[in-house]
């Protein structure tokens, strides 16, 4: 009995000297805090896309604010969606692709877009072709063509060709250069992580599905607002994705 009292006194003294922090810092659900290297960077890019942030892959001020501030939330406003099924919006300002179902977000994914010299065109188009393990034509002879299933094929293993007014040859596809996701480095096409396009986007796209591409300002003129709101209540900040698309483990980089 005396020993038990002694142990209890020691425990109480420890709590007084080193109190338990019952107000631990709130943190938004994410998949990068326990990752390292390229996988960590990839998960930061996914986190940024999912929260309407500019995709950079770095823990900048805006990303930290979203990570630790419970009073922030990402919100999309879609006026007059062109389809009640799945369709796509590509934000050229923030470097992410949003998969919508009607006016609801079904998923957001970081992308790589065209350089200033080979920019990704803006406009309203649609999916005109879909291919698994596509061959690459080398941009009409500019480069040496590469066949399907070749590890050097820059298209990855999925291709969705786009019908854009006055444009040709553009598409949404995978990549063999995942480090370039979140940059303006392509010849104008929209590159995605292979895992993202293969598992979440390609399976849901059908021929004729609408694809809208533009900057923040251009998308606003199309009736698409992708914003970050301040002062949202705790209830509003609960993460309720339209569709579950992330496994308990971090998604593959490739």
Overall description:
The chain is an alpha+beta fold. Helices cover 22% and strands 26% of the residues. Strands 2-3-4-9-7-6-5-10 form an eight-stranded mixed beta barrel. Strands 1-11 form a two-stranded antiparallel sheet. Strand 6 and strand 7 (171-173) form a beta hairpin. It is globular, with a radius of gyration of 22 Å. It starts with a helix and ends in a 24-residue tail after the last strand.
Give the helix proportion (percent range): 10-25%
Structural class: alpha+beta
Number of strands: 11
Q: Report how far the terminal alpha carbons are from each other.
A: 61 Å
How many helical stretches?
Answer: 6
Shape: globular
Strand content: 25-35%
Report the major sheet: 8 strands, mixed, barrel
Detail the poorly predicted runs. Answer: 234-248
Rg for CA atoms: 22 Å
Overall pLDDT: 86
Widest sheet, order of strands: 2-3-4-9-7-6-5-10
Order of helices and strands: HHHEEEEEHEEEEHEHE
């Amino acid at each position: 009995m005396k020993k038990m009292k002694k142990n209890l006194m020691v425990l109480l003294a420890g709590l007084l000297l080193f109190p338990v922090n019952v107000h631990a810092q709130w943190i938004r659900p994410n998949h990068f805090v326990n990752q390292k290297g390229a996988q960590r960077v990839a998960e930061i890019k996914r986190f940024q896309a999912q929260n309407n942030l500019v995709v950079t892959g770095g823990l900048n001020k805006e990303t930290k604010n979203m990570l630790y501030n419970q009073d922030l939330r990402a919100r999309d406003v879609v006026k007059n969606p062109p389809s009640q099924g799945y369709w796509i919006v590509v934000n050229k300002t923030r470097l992410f692709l949003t998969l919508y179902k009607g006016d609801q977000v079904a998923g957001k994914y970081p992308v790589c877009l065209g350089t200033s010299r080979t920019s990704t065109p803006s406009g309203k188009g649609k999916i005109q072709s879909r291919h698994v393990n596509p061959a690459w034509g080398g941009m009409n002879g500019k480069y040496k063509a590469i066949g399907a299933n070749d590890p050097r094929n820059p298209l990855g293993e999925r291709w969705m060709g786009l019908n854009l007014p006055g444009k040709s040859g553009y598409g949404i596809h995978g990549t063999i250069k995942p480090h370039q996701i979140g940059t303006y480095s392509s010849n104008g096409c929209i590159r995605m992580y292979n895992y993202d396009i293969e598992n979440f986007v390609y399976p849901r796209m059908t021929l004729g599905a609408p694809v809208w591409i533009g900057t923040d300002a251009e998308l606003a003129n199309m009736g698409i607002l992708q914003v970050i709101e301040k002062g949202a209540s705790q209830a509003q900040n609960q993460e309720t994705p339209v569709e579950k698309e992330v496994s308990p483990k971090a998604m593959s980089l490739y």
